[in-house]
Every structure is written in C-alpha cells, then in structure tokens.
Design a protein that fits this description.
The chain is built from six helices and eight strands, in the order E-E-H-E-E-H-E-H-E-H-E-E-H-H. The protein has 222 residues and is of the alpha/beta class. Strand 1 and strand 2 form a beta hairpin.
C-alpha cells in the first residue's frame, strides 16, 4: 500500500503539518525529495508524484500562496526532528548560569581572579552572568559599569560571546556571556582527548610504533 493512501495516525497534534490527503488546496508549489523546485502544480499531480516515489507529501509552508509542499519520508523527518529537539533540550538543561561579581573600583589582581574563574566556566560549557554591584553614588555613573563589562567581554572573547548586553537591574548592572561550545561538545572533546592520551601512553609503554624497526637500524652490523 502506498504512503498516500495509508490511514493517517489517530493522534494528530495541532503543530503537526498537514500531509497527503489532509492537504486540501487546488494548487501547491512542489519541492521534490532532493530539494529540487518542481514549481506550481495541481494537488492531484503532487499527490501522484509522492505516491509514485512511495513517500509522503508534506505541507512545509502553509501560509504561502500557493502553499509549499515537499515530497519526503515524513516518519523519518519526524524522528530526526524529535532527536534534534531532544538534544537541544539536553544541552539547554545542562547549561548552568554561573555568576561573577565585580565592584566598580575593582583591584587589578581581583579582576584577574574573576576573569580566570569566568574563563573556566565558559570552557566547561556554562554561561556566565557578570554583575557589577554599585555602591552609593556609583549608581550615577553607569557608563563606567558599561566600560568595565565591555572590557570583561573582550577579555573572555576567546571562550564566549555576549548573549545579553549590559542592563541595569536595581542597584546592579548585569551582562550574560554564552560559551562558544555547549556542554555536549565540551564532553565530546574531553572524551576524545582522554582516548588520545590513553593511546599515547599505551604506545609509549610498548616502545611506540616502529620502535622495533628503529632499533634494528640502530644496531651495528655484524
């Protein structure tokens, strides 16, 4: 039985696109299974082409005039979309917002300490919320706080980028830096590095690749 005439799933969410016989418009702009632009065709033609390819006809841009549809494996598409959403949620859940606090008149060595701490957070895949705590009349000089936070952003640019610019929050000024790499990417790199280190250590214990040949070349001829 071809896909176009298979019964539709009973549970259809409002967010699901219309597929196959549920697409009830006279004409559509058709995109082929490999992304090729077929053009505007009658809906009957689009359904027939999808049926012949044993694939689904999926409405990908319902608000266009005419609506845009694509021939694809809808089951595979939904599975891949669900996996991407799951990965995005996992990365978002694993990302922690760390906080680094400054005084407007911070000493150089204190600033360096805070900077190193922030770099460590960003390298681990966490976001950093940089906060300046204003005292007394310091609140009347917000431009100094902006300069300090911008300097901080420049100093950590190797590890992260500004996600939200400096904003006033009561007696404080805050700015958020997002890491270049999320926790999942950091973990993958760490695992790869550990595997490489283990392989190097194993190779060193065994004399390294080609060690026997090198020893034979170095031995004096009899």
């Amino acid at each position: 039985m071809s896909r176009c005439h298979q019964p539709q799933p009973k549970e259809l969410r409002i967010s699901d696109p219309r597929t196959n016989d549920r697409i009830r418009v006279p004409e559509v702009r058709l995109v082929g299974p490999n992304g090729e632009q077929v053009g505007v065709v009658r809906i009957e033609v689009a359904l027939r082409l999808a049926q012949e390819a044993d694939l689904d006809l999926v409405e990908v841009a319902p608000n266009s005039k005419p609506p845009v549809v694509k021939i694809m494996d809808y089951g595979k598409f939904k599975y891949e979309a669900a996996q991407k959403a799951k990965e995005a949620r996992r990365n978002q859940a694993n990302t922690v917002l760390k906080e680094v606090r400054f005084r407007l008149k911070i000493e150089a060595h204190d600033y360096t300490t805070k900077l190193k701490r922030a770099e460590g957070f960003l390298k681990a895949g966490d976001k950093v919320k940089a906060m300046i705590l204003f005292r007394g009349r310091e609140q009347s000089r917000p431009e100094q706080g902006v300069r300090l936070l911008r300097k901080f952003a420049e100093d950590v640019a190797e590890f992260g980028t500004v996600e939200s610019n400096p904003t006033i929050d009561g007696r404080n000024m805050t700015m958020v830096i997002a890491p270049h790499k999320n926790k999942s990417e950091v973990k993958t790199e760490q695992n790869a590095q550990r595997a490489a280190n283990k392989e190097a250590a194993r190779s060193a214990r065994n004399g390294g690749p080609g060690a026997a040949e090198a020893d034979a070349e170095a031995a004096p001829a009899e």
